Amino acid sequence: MAEAGLTSGEYIVHHLQNLTVCKANGEWVWNQCEGNFYAMNVDSMFFALFLGLVFLTLFGRVAKRATTGVPGKLQTLVEIVVGFVDQSVRETFHGKSNVIAPLALTLFCWVFLMNLMDLIPVDWLPWAAHHVGIEHLRVVPTTDVNVTFAMSISVFILTIFYSIKIKGIGGFTKELTLTPFNHWAAIPFNLILEGVSLIAKPISLSLRLFGNMYAGELIFLLLALMGLYQVPLQLMWAGFHILIITLQAFIFMMLTIVYLSMAYETH
Amino acid sequence: MNINLTLLGQTIGMIVFVWLTMRYIWPPVMNAIEKRRQEIADGIAAGEKGQRELADARHGSDAIMQEARQKAVQVVDLAHKRSSELVGEAKHVAVAEGERLVSAARTEISNEQTRARDGLRREVAALAVSGAARLLGREVDAKTHAALLDELAAELEKQAPKHG
């Protein structure tokens, strides 16, 4: 529950504050970095990298000892996930690329693990952090807009890279300027239309994930204000949230594949 | 909700993670899956082949069994025939042997008869001679009365079949 002496509003605001570090006036300061680009959300970075390493360790161990004979339980799990991602990629993406399938696997597992942090009761880790002297801690990296944008922008850059690689700069420019209306007079109009749809992809990709996870966390926080009554409600919402977590991870992966396969397709 | 350097950090982290996955995780796992799939496909094919071969073998064994059964029937028939032939032959031999034995016995009997009759005749003749000698009171000379004796013997001979 909320630390003593906080109103409901203060409690929620407190929980939605990242642990941020930046240099102000020649000194390293914590949590005084509003509007400063040269700051780092230490909690988001820590949990994101930690969970990424969890994924790499888990899958790497299996990959190292992968047997073609009877697989162990962990290998079976890993193979189910890998097979699922592989099937999703094959169904959507018809080009040839060594990057897309591993990228999709990494994104799916990583986003899933980051979302999964939402199921840890909202006060446990912040409470523990409070007792070792850390005032702010957000444990779900996907509720940090930096994290989701970083992933979607990487995908966006990859999309543009592949568009240019497959269609050439000319082809890519033509796609931006001569569709949907193939006439020189329509070029500005086309450019606006295609430009918006191009930019909308990474923004919607990241904001969808961010919005879902942020809203989910907010509901957990609101429920946490209800005293003892919160227990059944928290459990119910956690139950629903399991679906959201998996679905959002899947959607993020799927859209990544779709955007990249669109980059590969020549009209 | 501030955009800051976390964006860059996360991007670098993501690139590293994707690269590591691409390099060290995806190929071996996919390789294992593909290899196992191939092995399973091979195993299923081998199983089907084995089943087909088993069916063929069963078919072949059925034919062989049938043939063997037919041969056995033939052999039994032959044996029956042969045994009845042997029995018939043996009967033949036995009958011939029996007939031979009977005829030999008959010959023996008739020989014995003749011999006994001769002996008897001789004895009767001697008796007759001795009886006559006693009657005449003297010895009958066999030589002198040979003609007489022969006559007597012939007489006896003539009567013999009646008693014989």
What's the quick description here?
The complex is a heterodimer of chains A (267) and B (164). Chain A has 267 residues and is mainly α. Chain A contains eight helices and three strands.
What would you report as the Rg of chain A, rounded to the nearest angstrom? 22 Å
Regions of chain B with pLDDT < 50 over 5+ consecutive residues?
Answer: none
Order of helices and strands of chain B: HH
Mind summarizing the main beta sheet of chain B? none
How many domains of chain B? 1
Number of structural units classed as domains of chain A: 1
Categorize the overall geometry of chain B: rod-shaped
Pairing-aware structural class of the strands and helices of chain B?
Answer: mainly alpha
Structure report:
The complex is a heterodimer of chains A (267) and B (164). Chain A has helices at 8-15, 42-64, 73-92, 100-116, 124-131, 145-177, 187-224, 230-264, and strands at 20-24, 27-30, 39-41. Chain A has 267 residues and is mainly alpha-helical. Chain A is globular. The model of chain A has no long low-confidence stretch (mean pLDDT 89). Chain B has 164 residues and is an all-alpha fold. Chain B has one domain (3-159). Chain B contains two helices and no strands. Chain B has helices spanning 6-136, 146-163. In chain B, helix 1 (6-136) crosses helix 2 (146-163). Chain A binds chain B through residues 20, 22, 33-41, 44-45, 48-49, 52, 55-56, 59-60, 62-64, 66-69, 71, 75, 78-79, 82-83, 86, 98-99, 101-103, 105-107, 110, 141, 144-147, 149-151, 153-154, and chain B through 1-11, 13-15, 17-18, 20-22, 24-33, 35-36, 39.
Which short descriptors sum up this protein?
heterodimer, A: 267 residues, mainly alpha, 8 helices, 4% strand, globular, B: 164 residues, 2 helices
